[in-house]
Amino acid sequence: MNQQVKQRNYTPIIVGLTIVINLLVAVLYFMPKYNGLGNVNLTFLPFFNAVMNSFTFIFLVAALYSIKQKNIQRHRRYIFAAFTTTALFLLSYVTYHALAPSTHYGGEGILRPIYYFVLITHIVLSAVIVPLALISVTRGLNMQVDKHRKIARWTMPLWLYVSLTGVIVYIMISPYYS
After folding, report:
1. CA 37, 24, 111 angle in degrees (round to 5)?
2. What does the DSSP assignment read for 55-115?
3. How far apart are the first and last CA of the chain?
4. Sequence-ordered list of residues with C-beta below 8 angstroms from that of 109, at least 6 positions apart, any chain
5. Contact 116/94 with Cβ under 8 angstroms?
6. How far is CA 69 from CA 65, 74, 114, 147, 151, in A?
7. Distance between CA 170 and CA 49 in Å, rounded?
8. Nearest to 139 by CA among 120, 122, 152, 126
């Protein structure tokens, strides 16, 4: 029995979320920090962010493995898990950058340009991955398999890169949190 999946138009949601998320993150770099929490140490949040990025990476690898095994249900569960850890990361990231002062990288030598290369590619691709991931998941939910595969071929490696480099950036800058 061939069930028809009701096609839903997620485009307004994708466009809206892409604009809101990327604009919010961009605004965080320019807005003054809120100082109402006194001496609360928020440096645990970057560690939490790295943990969430680690889980996202693991869930994405598991999702990729699952789809290679043609287990669509397990693939879908891991993708939803990756979206969950990414959402938790985003909430924590926004909270930290709204409340804490910026931390500057203090490394020297060859590590300095490596750090900035990883950081800049991470930032640029994290903005790109928002619409790609949302489009990929909605095409999967609508069972538009061919369209889903076409975009997922780009989304998966980029999302893996963004989640992995988030952890690398944290490891490289963590000695400089005060």
Report:
1. 80
2. HHHHHHHHHHHHHHTT-HHHHHHHHHHHHHHHHHHHHHHHHHHHHS--------TTHHHHH
3. 61
4. none
5. no
6. 6, 10, 36, 20, 19
7. 8
8. 152
Per residue of the chain (178 residues), give pLDDT as tens.
445 667 777 787 888 888 888 888 777 767 666 665 667 778 899 999 999 999 999 999 999 999 999 999 999 999 999 999 999 999 999 888 888 878 899 999 999 999 999 999 999 999 999 999 999 999 998 999 999 999 999 999 999 999 999 999 999 999 998 6
The model carries a pTM of 0.85
What length does the chain have?
178
